[in-house]
Amino acid sequence: MDSRHLLATALALIAAAPAAAQQAATPSPSAATPLDAVTATGTRTPMVAGEGAAPVSVIRREEIRERDARSVAEMMRDVPGVEISGAPRTTAVEPLIRGLGGERVVFRLDGARNNFNAGHRGRVFVDPELLRQVDVLRGPGSTLYGSGAIGGVIALRTLEPDDLIRPRPEGAELPFEFGGFLRGGYQTQGGMWRGAGAVAARAGDVAVLGALGGFSNRNLTDGAGNTIPFTADNILSGLARMQWRPGFHLLDLSAIVFRDSHVIPIAANTATTTSITDRDTEQEVYTLRWSYSDPSMPLLNPQVVLYRNHIRLDERRQTGTRARDTTELTTTGIDVQNTSRFALFGWDRHTLTIGGEFYRDEQEGTQNGRPRGQFPNAHQEVAALFIQDQIAFAGFTLTGALRHDSFRQSADGNTNERNADRLSPRVSLAYQVLPWLEPYIAYSEAFRSPSLTELYVSGQHFPGNSFVPNPNLRPETSRNLEAGLNIRFGDVLRTGDRLRARITAFENRIDDFIEQLVFARTTESRNVRDARIRGVEAEIQYDAGTWFAGLSATALRGDNLTDNQPLASVPAHRMTLSGGYRFLDDGVTVGARWQLVAAQDRNPTNIPGLARETSGYGILDLYASWRPAFAQNLRFDIGVDNVFDHAYRRSTWNANPAPPFYETGRNVRGSVTLTF
Q1: pTM greater than 0.90
Q2: Which residues on neighbouring strands pair with residue 397, listed in sequence order?
Q3: Cβ–Cβ < 8 Å for 139, 506
């Protein structure tokens, strides 16, 4: 389906909205869209997602529940500019942002960096049940987040006590406040049972939270009725948190634990069904955050985050050598910043953020207890300083930022220690032309330092072929120019409704792109090409309290400028239409999502194993929730994904010859939640 037809369909549906609105009842005064959510990811200071020159999409707790996703990547599939890379599994799928994935996207979990990446094994290991919000910054973000943010930044935030604690009943003499939930559910795909529970309490200045969640499923089935092999999973995760708020201080200590046990291909995010391993995945993330915020001291708003993120994969190969592999990465770091708010001349307002970051990555790979060259024992230390000033004057907001990163990378037994540094600038200008219209333009540069594995890998790739290290790799760099419009209307069709929209066009030029090249007897990472990705993104959301509608659309074009070929990683044009109705008196919400994806026929012809063309498709999902008036603490959810059991493949994992299975077929799911 042509992208112009997709956009025409969307505009027709939006145009039909007024007729439906005329028949609706008085909306809830709290009608709000995700573009009204508060986020600090785009600028490191709180802002409304639909304002400013930082294109950030926010997925809130309510949307997480409605989607009922089993992975973070699946949860983000409707975000403009984001696509899922990887075969249909509950683990090891990864998100692409604007056609870039892997280590070209920065992940942060409660402020802790997640730098794990090891040979198609996946990057993010967290159960969505434990999340309160997900922020997606689209486009280069190295100015604030350093190496890897060429495609963007994904910030995950876990549950906090305030999300669960309910006000103390009037007249109650309890010495504390508390709240929590229990949730259980089932889905037909894989016969999956899942459950989660959390409880939080507050006494005085101290609040605590504990949460536990997990699921177990058999192999999934695709839209053609085929079993998708090696998709069974058993996951258990937990969260513990304590917060202390003496005066204007906040001390927040959290621990996140993830455990996964399954039989899966070693290259887990591909469509392969060979090289099978019995894999256990463990992740432990510990963070300690301190902040201070006194309204009477606008020059002092510091925040410090200390963290340790440890990931370990233990794999017992079921074929071939039947070796036992371990893959470990530990990231320890500190992130410090202070924000000052002031005026210099009386007609301007400054929000000045100055900060620094230091982190150390230590990775280790073994096979049968001995060092494994495919994941070399290596480490890197990164130190960074950054500054950003947001200047508001006469309807304009001018933002300038600069970051300096310094790297030191080395491997055990390797004399080629690397020292490098990089500057990452960003400047943007937004202008509030009208109360409802804010255009903006932005220029930013980003980079990705070569990974420790790319620099120091060695050993056998496959029989007759060996890895060759390349300690002379140059960093990937990007230059991104984009322009956009923010649109914010209220009382459009009726009193209290909200219409929010963001439309963005961009061009991202990437130099010294690093690729892994496979020759007859050797495999080596090299800086091989320059690339360009252009695109248009649209995000439109309307909420009238009783009914709501939305549209997200993405059209991307990627080119390998060195070989004059299309880029392989760029997904097909896509549009998602969503909408629903809330029967407020009955506590019922019904909704639908319709994802339309165009055919992708711009694939390179010089790379073996890639599909020449991927067919377009349309997928319809339906969902409903009910909170009965006689029991407001109960919630029932039901949904049907891929209603018509369509057999399709995403362009980001299809291959030539075609894999023996498609994406997951129809799935009927339901859950019950009890809050207290």
Answers
A1: yes
A2: 392, 430
A3: yes
DSSP per-residue codes, 514-527: EEEEE-SSEEEEEE
Give which of 296, 265, 267 is closest to 278, Cα–Cα.
265
Confidence of residue 172 (pLDDT cuts 50, 70, 90): low
Tokens standing for residue 55: 């294109």
Question: Residue 37 is which amino acid?
Answer: A
Round to whole Å and give the CA distance between 559 and 570.
9
The SS3 call for residue 11 is helix
Which residues are CB-neighbours of 167 under 8 A, at least 6 positions away?
Answer: 177
- Residue ranges of the domains in the chain? 3-166+178-675
- Average pLDDT of span 423-434: 97
Task: Report whether pLDDT(111) > 90.
Answer: yes
CA 448/CA 426 separation, integer angstroms: 16
| φ, ψ dihedrals at 269, nearest 5° | -95, 20
SS3 362: strand
> What is the C-alpha separation between 514 and 523, in angstroms, rounded?
13
DSSP 629: T
Q: How far is CA 170 from CA 167, 471, 676, in A?
A: 9, 67, 16
User: Is residue 164 within 8 Å of 130, Cβ to Cβ?
Assistant: no
Dihedral (Cα; 319, 320, 322, 327), 10-degree rounding: -90
Separation between Cα atoms, residue 179 and residue 198, nearest integer Å: 8
How far CA 250 is from CA of 288, 293, 351, 357, in Å, comes to 10, 9, 21, 20
Residue with tokens 């997602």: 49
Q: How many C-alpha atoms does 288 have within 13 Å on its Cβ side?
A: 5
**Residue 169, token pair as written in the block:** 């009943």
Written as six digits, the tokens of 393 are: 């004057």
Q: In whole angstroms, how far apart are CA 243 and each of 135, 187, 201, 442, 543?
A: 22, 35, 10, 37, 34
Q: Which CATH superfamily includes the segment(s) 3-166+178-675?
A: TonB-dependent receptor, beta-barrel domain (2.40.170.20)
Between CA 158 and CA 574 the distance in angstroms is 29
The two counts, helices (H) then strands (E), for the chain are 6, 37
Q: What is the pLDDT of residue 444?
A: 97
Alpha-carbon distance of 433 to 235, in angstroms, equals: 50
- Here the tokens at position 234 are 């058993």
Q: Is the dihedral of CA 9, 10, 15, 20 positive or negative?
A: positive
What amino acid occupies position 521?
R
- pLDDT, tens digit, for every residue of 198-249? 999 999 999 999 999 999 999 999 999 999 999 999 999 999 999 999 999 9
Instruction: Give which of 191, 196, 114, 108 is closest to 156, Cα–Cα.
Output: 108
**Are β-strands 152-158 and 105-109 bridged in parallel, bridged antiparallel, or unpaired?**
parallel
For 561, phi then psi, to 5°, come to -75, -20
Instruction: Give the C-alpha distances (Å, rounded to integers) separating 160 from 133, 137, 180, 243, 328.
Output: 11, 22, 11, 9, 29
Tell me how far CA of residue 630 lies from CA of 587, 626, 636, in angstroms. Answer: 10, 11, 13
Question: What's the token pair of residue 216?
Answer: 């177990």
Q: How far apart are CA 235 and CA 280, in angstroms?
A: 10
In this structure, what token pair is assigned to residue 410?
A: 């080395």
